[in-house]
Write a structure and sequence with these properties.
By secondary structure, this protein is α/β, with parallel strands linked by helices. Helix content is 46%, strand content 13%.
Length: 271
Amino acid sequence: MPPSTKIAVVTGASSGIGSVYADRLARRGYDLLLVARRGERLQSLAARLEQACGIKAETLVADLEREDDLTRLETVLAANPAIRVLVNNAGVARLSPVAETPIKDSLSQIALNITALTRLTHAILPAFKERNDGVIINIASALSLHALPVSSVYSGTKGFVLNFSRGLQQELANTGIRIQVVLPAATATDLWDIAGVPLVALAPETVMSVEHLVDAALAGFDLGELVTLPSMADPGLWDRFDAARTELFAAMQTSQPAPRLLSLSATQPSI
């Protein structure tokens, strides 16, 4: 991502991971389009970064769960040829058992974590492909790889982000467009206040600062990583996981049912 007067768009930029991405990209010389619901915070961040980094920072107040706001941002992404980076950071977590969760909370997670991210990617890709240049950074989660009794919907949405990103990486492998997917573990953001699990309930040694998270993620990008797990010290763990995933998928490519499922000694039907 060479320093230039090109624009980086960061969603969910008013606090947490998004605001630090904005800071780091401004320091790399990018002008910014900062997107979030909280206008006062956006304006304050934009003014600070303009002053500190000598860049231009514009703001767009938008709730990406709302159709009109999402459409407005799609239009900007499709129409502005100066945009070179899209950080799909906006997201929400509601951590509770499905049976105890209002349906609106589940749909809210799907709308922001899946629908908005997908639509914004669709909006920017044609211009990126025409120039054969561009960067999309998708913020997933460690829970893309794991589910808890309270994370069924959230893990499902972040699992989508991981697989969507990996498919795009293969689709665009021979182009100048780069897709990175970042899987943060527990990070000190205000997402926890919304999620229903207070940050103070977590062991402090398991929680990474936002600054460390973003700096590690950008270091992974600079190293050419397609999938960055900022808190994982042993990259061999991911390599073995990914190899096992590939082997498992290959083993499924047969027309025959698994022998254990055809066994005459199978137990009596349970339903």
